[in-house]
Amino acid sequence: MKAWLWQHRDALATTVTRLARTPVATLLNLGVIGVALALPVGLYVGLDNLTAVVDRNRLQQGARTEDTNRLDSLPDRWSAFGWDVVEVDGHDHLALRGVLEASAPGRPTCVIANTVKGKGVSFMEDRVEWHHKIPTAEQVAAAHLELAR
Question: Following DSSP, what letter does each residue of 48-106 receive, concatenated?
Answer without folding.
Answer: TTEEEEEEE-SEETTEEHHHHS--TTHHHHHHHTT-EEEEEETT-HHHHHHHHH---TT
